[in-house]
Write a structure and sequence with these properties.
mainly alpha
């Protein structure tokens, strides 16, 4: 299993995975809040719209900034930003390769790169002997 070189890359990977989850949830809940607020004339629905719209925008923008430097340790392909190349080992979850990487990162501690098909471990890198 291949490991990421530094802890900052792991932090960026986990942060971008969480931001993408927040972005998807905000985008899914926003139409329901709009319908709730406008058709039912409820102020709580409109307040939810005013919370969900900026959160979707900010989480999407922060995801783009955080995930720009996260690459596979072996093939150097962008893990969360680019669609996978033709690889028969690429695994998808509910039709999305990104969702598989996010679920593996947040819940299992490893994922399979959708570009090269090699497993990547998302645990802290090992300390090399002789370095402080």
């Amino acid at each position: 299993m291949h490991r990421f070189a530094t802890r900052s890359l792991l932090f960026k990977l986990r942060l971008s995975a969480l931001l993408l989850v927040v972005f998807f949830l905000s985008c899914v809940l926003l139409p329901f809040a709009v319908v709730w607020g406008t058709l039912l004339h409820d102020e709580r629905g409109l307040q939810a719209c005013f919370v969900l719209l900026p959160s979707a925008f900010l989480s999407g923008l922060l995801f783009l900034m955080a995930s720009s430097g996260v690459r596979c340790p072996l093939c150097r392909g962008q893990v969360l930003r680019r669609p996978p190349s033709a690889n028969n080992k690429a695994i998808s979850l509910l039709g999305s390769h990104r969702l598989h990487v996010i679920a593996g990162t947040l819940f299992k501690g490893h994922f399979r790169c959708s570009h090269c098909g090699e497993p990547c471990e998302t645990q802290n890198p090992r300390r090399r002997p002789g370095r402080v």
